[in-house]
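S.,

Sequence below, as promised.
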Amino acid sequence: MTSPKKPRKWSLILFALTFAAPCGAADVKYQMDCDLGKGTAQTRRANGFTVILAPSNGMCRVSVLDVHRSSVFEYASTGVQVFVGVAVTSDGSTNAIIQADDFNPYKLFVVSLGEHPRLMRTIENQYGFWLQDDCGGKIRIWTSDGAFGSDPDLADVYHRDLFTPDVVLELEGERLVDATPMCKAYFDHEIESLRSELRERDIPRFRDHQIKDNFYRGQIKGKILKIIFCYLYTGRETEAKEFLQQMWPANDSDRLWQSIVNLRSEGVLRNLNQSH
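The prediction came back faster than expected:
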């Protein structure tokens, strides 16, 4: 297992080398981390609550205790990362954000440290979760849509995980909502960067299946798909479809669009309609 930043796909350094980083990008680190049950116990306090992350028999156990030292939440996994503070809710309340590296899927728990302490939400996804505050200055949950982890259209794209759709989530009361459309400026920077890397002369060759270098063709393909995802996941379906039709082989565009729509409906956004 790797560092607390592992959930953000698989390499932030590689991402920075692959794409120009969007302006204002700011990861918020998990404050506590336990990996394979190693290390010593860590503790954080907020609003009279105590959050303890400790190794236990080769596992990592997190406990959330109220002011009376009664248990609010407990969980154990091979790896756990914890953030305690004002995060992921529209009302600016204090929570414990707990990621468990269960794999297939990862799990993220949001535990309220307020007047009514409780497990507010459980989110599952094939990719892990990270926290960012560069979209309106609020700390939100970010992840990549796990439904695209086995997408055959990304199968020949080098470091395919870097091209999967990013999704932004937050809580409004008890509802988990898709906050990705609120982050259009962030994704517009990514679109601009990706488009600048697509050479005009390559587009007709890509559309006509004339690029023989599979690696190079895969990189063009990945960037086109990523731009489509950026438009679609920020609520701009028309722009996404128009860009697809401009860039993708005409005899395959309808199939690709239907595939993307179907995968998206099966992905992490389905959590919006599920309770914990």
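The chain is about 25% helix and 30% strand.

Coffee later?
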